[in-house]
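Consider today's protein:

***
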Amino acid sequence: VKNNRPLASRRSARTRDRNMAGENSSQAFDSLVQAISGAVGGFVSASTLYPLDVVKTRMQAGHRGTYTEIAQHVAKENGVIGLWKGFQYVGFSSAYEKLCYFYVYSFCLDIYNRRCGAIGTAANLALGYCVDWAHKPITYPVDTITNMIKVENIGFYDAFQQLSRGGVGAFYRGLSAHTIGALKPAVQFAVYERIKQMTLSGQTTPLSAFQAFVLGALARATADTIMYPARTVKTRKQSALRAATPGTEFTSEEIKENQRIVSMSALACLFHVYRKDGIGAVYRGVEMEVGRGVLSAGLMLMIKESLASTVRDTLLVLLKRLGAT
C-alpha cells in the first residue's frame, strides 16, 4: 500500500496538469475568438466612420468652422473621396489594436473570474488600463501619422518623412497625454461589461446584435465625455509638431507658439488651451466625438458579438483539418 501512494500521487498530479492545460487551452481559444471578432469589428467601424474622425481631428487641432464647413473644405481640396484619405491605415491600426486588446483583456478577465470570482469595477478599470498600453508601441506611431494626414491633408509618405526629421520621439509626440487617455477604453469596456452582465442576468439568451449596439453606444458615450480633454491635448501636441518647424508656411509667432506646445507636459498643455481659448476649446468637437464614438463602438461591438459564433466555428473547422493532416 505504501508503494502505491506515490504512484497514486503522481497520477493525481498528472491529471491536474492535464486539466490545467485544458483550461489554459480553452482560455486561449476563447480569447482568440474574441480578438478576431473585435478586430473585424474595429476595422469596419473605423473605416466606415472615418470622415467623421477627419472633421473631429481638425476641430481638435484648432481649425475654425462648423462640422459642415470643415467637411466641405476637405471635400473641396480633394473631392468627396478626400474625406476617406488615409482610412486604410486607421482601419488596420484599429483592427490590430482591438486584436491585442480583446485577446489580452478576455484572457486575463477569464483567469480572474475563474480564480477570484466576478471582477469588480476597480479591478476591471485597472485591467483595461494596463491592457491598453500593450499595443501602443506599434499603434501610436500610426495614430500620429494618420492625425497628420487628416489635419495637414498630405500623404502617408510625406507625413512619415516629416516626422522622421524629428527622430523616433516625434512619432510618440503627445504620448504623455495617453497616460490619462488610456483610461478611456478601460472606462468604456468596464461600463460595457457591467451593463452587459446586468442585461444578461435578466434573460436566458445571448446578447442580440441590437442590444450589443445599444450597450456599446452607452459605454462609449460615457467614456468619451469623461476622457475627451486628454484626446484634445494629444491632438494639439501632435498637430503642433509640424507647425513648430521653421521654414513652413506658418508665421514666426505661430511657430513659437507651437514650439511651446510641443515642449509642454500634458497637464500644462491642457491648462494652456483652457487659458487661451476657454473651456469650449478643451471640449471643441466633443459632440462629433461622442456621436462618432457612439456609432463606432456600437457598430464594432455589434459586429463582434454577431461574428463570435461564426469565428468560433471557423476556427474549430480549421483546427480539425490541421489535426487531420
